[in-house]
Amino acid sequence: DGERSARFYEALGFERVQAEPPFVHLRWGGSADIYLVSTPAGAALQGRRGLGVLVGFRAGPEGIQAVIERALKLGAEVEGPTSQPWHTHEILITDPDGYRLNFIEPA
Question: Residue 97: pLDDT band by 50, 70, 90 thresholds?
Fold first, then answer.
């Protein structure tokens, strides 16, 4: 459900730039674009969605805590924050379709 996914991303803080089926164009932090593409009618996706995919975004000036709070309000699975040896704090959020989003801020 492309519209459900778009609403999830917007509630996380993404901005809807354009929507023309089957595409929804979203933007994070004014600089990172993502396109949600609905599965064509009659097409079947095999296997678990998002397996092996991790999409990363810099958390931005509000920081990862604001993203965590919005994700939890949506009932999303949130892992972290984790402090990484490369001097970042990171969280993982799983979207309604199983794709994993990695939000990062400097430590």
Answer: confident
Spell out the long-range contacts of 86-93 with Cβ–Cβ below 8 A and sequence spacing 24 or more. 89/64, 90/64, 91/64, 91/67, 92/54, 93/12, 93/67
Tell whether the torsion through CA atoms of 22, 95, 66 and 105 is positive or negative. Answer: negative
pTM: 0.86
Q: Calculate the alpha carbon distances from 17 to 7, 96, 107 in Å.
A: 13, 20, 31
Categorize the per-residue pLDDT at 84 as very low, low, confident or very high, splitting at 50, 70 and 90: very high
Who's near 62: CB < 8 A, 6+ residues apart?
Answer: 13
